[in-house]
């Protein structure tokens, strides 16, 4: 099980750029790498992954959860008034040493997210459901 979040501020990503969640809250088993933003499975099984992201004011955010380079789930959000958060989940049968991460969706040129300590957190988490 892991749970990591993004640092404060506005972050803009280009298509296919990895979103790295550097602040690790939980990392049982050490599978999440806060330098690359990638989770590497140490056991095979069915996993659930979840992402919360907050779009930057008047900008689109298009994150996707990726398993070994293939999208598991995509989302998009635009907010005109204020940065608002959305979430998405994905389930996957993952083999030992498989990698799962979050990146900006390849179908769009940019993806803008915003976070602040007091109100909005961008986060990525995963947990093993069944071996």
From TrEMBL:
Keywords: Secreted
GO cellular component: collagen trimer
Record flagged with keyword Ribosomal protein: no
Top-level lineage group: Eukaryota
Location in or out of the cell: Secreted
Keyword Secreted: yes
All residue ranges annotated as the C1q domain in the record: 1-131
Pfam family, one: C1q
Stretches of the chain forming a coiled coil according to its record: none
PROSITE patterns the record matches: C1Q (PS50871)
Gene3D superfamilies cross-referenced by the UniProt entry: 2.60.120.40
Main subcellular location of this protein, as a coarse class: secreted
Protein name (Swiss-Prot/TrEMBL): C1q domain-containing protein
